Fold:
Amino acid sequence: MGRAEARRADKSPRTAKGKKPKKTGIRRFFTWKKLLAYFLAVIALGIGAFVALYLYVDVPSGNSAAKLQSNVYKLSNGTVLARTGTVNREEVPLEKIPKNVQDAVVAAENKDFWTDPGVDFKGTARGILNTVMGRGKQGGSTITQQYVKNYYLSQEQTVTRKVNELIISLKVQQKFDKKDILAGYLNTSYYGRNAYGIQAASHAYYDKDADKLTLEEGAYLAALLQAPSQYDWTVATDAGKRNAQARWNYVLDKMVEKKWLDADKRKTMKFEVPKDPKPPKGMSGQNGYLVEAAKQEVERAFRKDGRGESALAAGGWTITLSVDPKKQKAMEQAVHEKVTSRLDPQARKVDGYAQVGAVSVDRKTGKIMALYGGQDYLKHFKSNATREDYQPASTFKPLIFASALQNKSKNEDGQRITAGTIYNGDNKRPIRNSEVAFAPENEDHTSYGPVTVQESMNKSINSVFAQMAVDVGLDKVKKTAVDMGMNGGAGNFEEVPAMSLGSMAASPLHMAGAYATLANHGKQVTPTIVASVTRNGEKVQMPNAIGSQVISTTNADNVTQVLKGVVNDGTATAVQLGDYAVAGKTGTSDDNKSAWFSGYTPDLITSVGMFGEGPGGAQVPLTGTGGVEGGRVNGGGYPAQIWADYTGKVAYGDTEFDLDTDELAVVPPPPAPTTSAKPSTPPSQSPSPSRSPQSQSPSATPSRPTPTREPSSSTSQSQKPKPPKPPTSSPPTPTTGGVGDAGGGNLNGARD
Structure:
């Protein structure tokens, strides 16, 4: 025997009779024959278990309607705000629903409904796996399965419920005709606006019976089934409206694909905006706004945890709000005393267009202490506190500075951006190093020459912050702003130089969250109005309002330090309080369609917005509102007055900011007050003669700069220094630019 044969013999030991030895230990259980046997046994057991379950599980009696109850909304002191959730359902036979509307629903939800076996085994298996893995509600579902879930089962996301759904769906498919299943589905589905069934939905969105629906209307109702509240046109965000319209188009295109709709007719069809809802009785005043804010928050949580928003509509929940009744009353009084009591629509047409929204948040918990949505929910359905269709103007500038600090950005000269960094504050100065030409206009066309970031924040100098945003990087500025709580949805927040002037859309709720993040030393705050959600002993785990550290403590505190300067000696002197330190920023849009003040004491953050809303929701200028002298409504006027009146009455906690800052005290505090902690009478809206910029070059710790817009009423003409000499030459103004840029101006941007 050669060596090679010997080695092979050694590697393949055999018994004395020439046979291979038997495998020992755990290896003897894993031969390929045994593995195949195991696999077949598991399959057999699975089939057997399924057959047993199929024989064991019966089709239950329909019980969804019996379970529908009212939801109770309470304030933090136990006072009941409202009871909602009265059953809104009226069943109609299938023949009362137009055939093309039936087709629209089938096309949207289950285009193969008429020929499928009633269940989607693959999608259901995926849903069960995702439930086991804790991934929430994911997986396919036929119309039959959805009907079974609506009518026979609950909305809970458990493996047991999903298995029952599968078995009952198979039995329902055998027991009932497809038309009966479709009729049941149409009459039990949730369409939003507390409407169960297509008849209730038809009235809720179009104020007509279901048999009068057009195909265009039916396609919208079919689209709603995917996300009822998100696609409700009246309360949807811009992104929600785009998604709703895209879903509407999808429904009609699927009908063409199935040859249920003529392609030529499809081309002529146009989306029709549904009617506004009719608010239920008992929701007058601020109650409706508070309930709606809480309802939307719970629905978001239910969508996220897999219950679906219809779980809230089914009722039986007790929702306790975080709103403090005393602070809520103080906010309502502040709006009345400072604005609404001065409005006279009979004398001034513009007074009928003024809308106010406000949100107040506790720094440590992120809970909403007070919310003002409008004069009356029954008269103005859209909440001004949560609406996202007006520009936040210069209240966005602190977020640019925060991004500059967080990203350790440098200016054109290679210097790190801090409160003492020098910028060119000339009016219509073309922005450098930008792919899009932009030359923003300063308030009153004022040129400031060399100016520090602190002075620029105090005076809200547009040219400085437009250049700073480009120096930081528009994408980085947006990321910081979104991290801090602003809505970064597509189409809402374009990365163009004009965004430096607050040209995106935001709500008082968004701005309260962003400023609360600053006040909370850089730890993200997502304001929440829901304190608890319970039903029959079950307590829902709501998302935590306090999130992660999105900007460093030092950087957040540096921004607060600078915003103290805006209040001590800038555009926001109207909000100085006696015993409490204040940081904040004013904002006024260029066309005067919105005016803002967002600010905070050490523990209470409040954002106030004022909006001009004309007929049909059109945005109109606020100019002349309340007979304001000088015409222009500034952020340092009505919004600041509301803020000061409210905060002066309810401020609590620490009186001084506990800041970890490496910035110098760039602006001294105001003189010690001689009166109580309540704010003094705010200045009038009429602009006092403004001081021209100082001629001397500013330093890193400049002397007290003089406000040039929304100044305190104590500014006198005799104090006016000589203006600086104009520059001998300046770069040419671009003729093209970013958003609102025409010849270098900022038509759609913010002036203050």
Summary: Confidence is low (pLDDT under 50) at residues 53-57, 665-751. The CA atoms of residues 407 and 472 lie 7 Å apart. DSSP finds 22 helices and 14 strands in the chain. The longest helix spans residues 32-56.
